[in-house]
What we know:
Layout: E1 7-10, E2 13-16, E3 26-29, H1 32-37, H2 40-49, E4 55-66, E5 73-79, E6 86-88, H3 89-92, E7 99-108, H4 109-112, H5 116-126, H6 141-157, H7 185-191, E8 204-213, H8 216-222, E9 228-235, H9 238-255, E10 270-272, H10 276-308, E11 317-323, E12 325-334, E13 337-346, E14 349-350, E15 369-372, E16 380-385, H11 389-393, E17 396-397, H12 407-413, H13 416-425, E18 429-431, H14 435-440, H15 449-458, E19 462-475
Parallel strand pairs: 3-4, 18-19
Antiparallel strand pairs: 1-2, 2-3, 4-5, 5-13, 6-10, 7-9, 7-11, 8-9, 8-19, 12-13, 14-17, 15-16, 16-19
Helix pairs in contact: 5-10, 6-10, 7-9, 9-10
This protein binds one DNA strand through α9.
Protein name: tRNA-splicing ligase RtcB
EC number: 6.5.1.-
Subunit structure: Monomer.
Amino acid sequence: MDTSQFIQRDETCWEIQPKGAMRVPAIIYADAQLLQDMDQKVYEQLTNVATLPGIVEAAYAMPDAHWGYGFPIGGVAAFDPDQGGVVSAGGVGFDISCGVRTLLTGLNIAELQPHKQALADALYRKVPAGVGSKGKIHLNHKAMHGMLTGGAQWALDQGYGEPQDLERIEEHGCMAGAESHYVTPRARERQKDEMGTLGSGNHYLEVQRVAEIFDQNVAKTFGLRVDDMVISIHCGSRGLGHQIGTEFLKEMVMSAAQYQIVLPDRELACAPLNSPLGKHYLGAMRAGINCALANRQIITHLTRQAVATLFPNIHLGLLYDVSHNTCKLEQHMIDGQRKSLFVHRKGATRAFGPGHPDLPTVYKEVGQPVLIGGSMGTSSYVLCGTKESEQRAFSSACHGAGRAMSRTQASKQWQGRTLVDKLAAQGIIIRSPSMRGVAEEAPLAYKDVGAVVDIADRAGLARKVARLEPVICIKG
DNA sequence: ATGTAC
Length: 476
């Protein structure tokens, strides 16, 4: 896009001053190159978000931002319920609570080498992947309610996982305020056989090698050493989250006029936080968060089982579990005053700094682990939250590389089989039910994740701790 | 992202 539309505030901060219906500025964190390469749609969508009622401070875009539904993916916006603030289904995203969880193995990658193919096979057999994938778990009405209100805590109670997993999950594995009665029969129907499945698109289960450490102290606290094997899971709330998003979006479009909300774009449909519709969405969305937390918890259990067939004596402990499609009630300082705000993060990771009360004790001194998934075949990163991120974007950071090309464009340009062979030659094993899906996820269809993470680090959104390289990737 | 349109 045209960078002359911005006032450059510092090395990584670009501002669009309020104009027209904008209530606050729009701010993008990027360098000149990333900003130039960013779709003009990010500018339009972010300035549209800045017009919404009750928005506080600014509408923010992370360095991985790209064109999304209504809100850009990589967008952060906070709303004050006492100032007419709103909640938007498109501002959370359709894959509610999509996120990344990383497991530590303590195993040196060299020990994996003789078992690499076998582990790829075991994981691929154990964890269902792909569009409409179903698992071995089938939820009746009671179990569905338990899952929607209990999240990873429910999964643990069903025997999936270990008690010590919970403290290393946002919300300690259970999102409070979930109201399962706002989740429709149709959404439940779509989910009842999908627990413990990866889904499709950019979702994956990846065995990785710790390739580089940027901060020895924090890496030690996080349990990361060079050449350690780790496993990351990227997925969300599957059909259920999508159905909740679809249904509430429609209702929000229909009721906008009733709430006197002027929408610059239908896709920005929202409802006042204090309205019945806003509250119902929050209740359903929180149930969607629990679905994603339970899903990643079950996949963790399946992963442990698969790994145990080859390495019966190792323990897979959680590094952390982050969600990057949410709207959460948080305390933030605005003009020296503590405010309770509803922070939308869509394709953006929460990144609380050192000392934050919601962090597990083990990470309280260093800050929250921020898990950044790379694209297929490229590096992933572990960062940690900083104090200054609170002032930069409500303690938020990027969530991945960010698409640089549409799925259709990518599937025309590359062939799945060729990519799989090419990555195999680099020592990366890909297992996927869909070669078209693989083509859509071609590494070059994404931005350079290293450049994105460098900007997040330089902007103070989060600090680089470690780089992970893929070894085995189970793709949805 | 998604029973890749209801």
